[in-house]
Design a protein that fits this description.
The chain has helices at residues 2-7, 12-71, 76-87, 142-151, 193-244, 260-345, 347-429, 434-581, and strands at residues 110-114, 120-122, 155-163, 166-179, 186-192. It is α+β, with helices and mostly antiparallel strands. It holds the Pfam family sCache_2.
Amino acid sequence: MIFMKKKFQFTIRMKLMTISFLLLTIPLVILGLLSYQKTTSSLNKLGEKNLKNSVEMTIELIDALNKEVEKGTLSLEEAQEQVKVAILGEKNADGKRPINKNFDLGENGYLYIIDQKGTLIAHPVVEGRQGWNDEDSKGVKFNQKMIKTGNEGGGLTYYEWALPDNENRIEKKVAYSKTDPHWGWVVCAGTYLMDFNQPAKDLLVFLMIVIGATIVIGFFIVWLFSNSISKPIHAVSERMHLLANGDLTQGEIKIRSKDETQNLAHAINQLQNKLKEMITNISNASEVLTSHSEEMTHSANEVKAGSEQVSTTMQELASGAETQASSASDMAAKMEVFVEKVQDASEKGEHIESVSREVLEIAGKGNKLMMSSTEQMSKIDEIFQQSVDKVLGLNGHLQKITKLVSVIQGIADQTNLLALNAAIEAARAGENGKGFAVVADEVRKLAEQVSVSISDITSIVDNIQNESKNVVDALKSGYQEVEQGTEQIKNTGATFQTINKAVTDMVHHIQTIASNLTEIASNSREMNRSIEEIASISEQSAAGIEQTSAAAEQTSSSMEEVANSSEQLAKLAEELNEFVRQFKL
């Protein structure tokens, strides 16, 4: 199928040769035909003119001889015979006359004379024959027509007649006829049109030879020219097919012509070099990628194995840390028993110190609470005072709002009145004021809505003012109660300060008694805390080791994913190598 397509492909060479052949042939053929037609027409006119001149010359001869007859120099018969001899020749023994070649009437042309009855007075072959009813192959009675034309002042008559040497071949003839005014003869000069056109035919043959030679030479030149264009293009096309099939082994295309084909070949050479360079780089990169992916896979497997080993080691360390934590916990339990015994030994002193401390703390807390309560009551007093001031200030703002509402109410009433007046004026204006009446009605509705809103706002402001008055009264009443509470708390605070001083002195004496027992208990607790810290650290170590083990396992899993990705990368690199191998470098 590809071969058949290539075989019947209309190539650039064929297109150039076809177009050039048409451009060369058509003008030459048209020029030849026009030249032939022009020449034929000119020759026909020239032949017709020769026929006419021959007839006119014969009539002039008749006129001259007739004058001789009138003078008596010649008889009529002698004069008429001289005319016949002049246009044809002497009559032969067989009654025929030769054709006078001195008259240029073509190969088969001759002069002849007929009378008004159609008798052939002078003729090369059938002189004396009656030709009134002679007709051609189409039934045209040409002798009658020539007589009529001659009597009308002269003219041409066309008819068809067989050739002298071939009766089966009919050709078109033309004859010029004119009547002699002296003797009544109709002098005719006739010939075949082909005799007139023979030079044109010779010219046509010559033109055909020239056209043929020109076409052959032009075809050869066009073939060379098209070959100079199609060969480089064919070379470029073949190279593109090779590039499409991955063949980059060919050398550069070399074209000598300094035109676009050389630029095209240069571009194809650059394309091939760039493709070769790109494919080489891709091949090298894919090989490096394959090598690196294999190394990455190997490294990932090694890291995975190391992570698994670390995970195993961490699990063993975790087991040992758990054992250590268990031992530390047992030691802590035993130490707690020892601390309890020491605590029993110092229970009396600690109990006394504890009670005294609690009393001191309670007294101190009470004193602090009283001081805090005093400060809080002072703040409450200040807050109440500020609240009263702010509510009073709010009342002032509400009064300003009331004034603004009154102003807006006045504006709304005025707007409503203006809208009413505008509606009245629009009604007076009739049709011209309808649009303005609609606008005035909308303005009036808006003014009414504003009035309704102002009424609602006024009602809300009045309610707020009433509530603010109630709040002010309540705040003032609460402020008085706060002042009384503040005074009572101050008195209670003084009492707590006295109690705190007495308890402080008592605790100072008790602390000296419990000092030794406290030191022993403190040392015991320090030991217990150390043991507990050891147990806690052991537990934390075990937890950390478990976390490290989990991280190692996670690392192993990640390395396994990395290894899988590396294998996939290696496969992609191998596929890229397979693609690159399709090209021949």
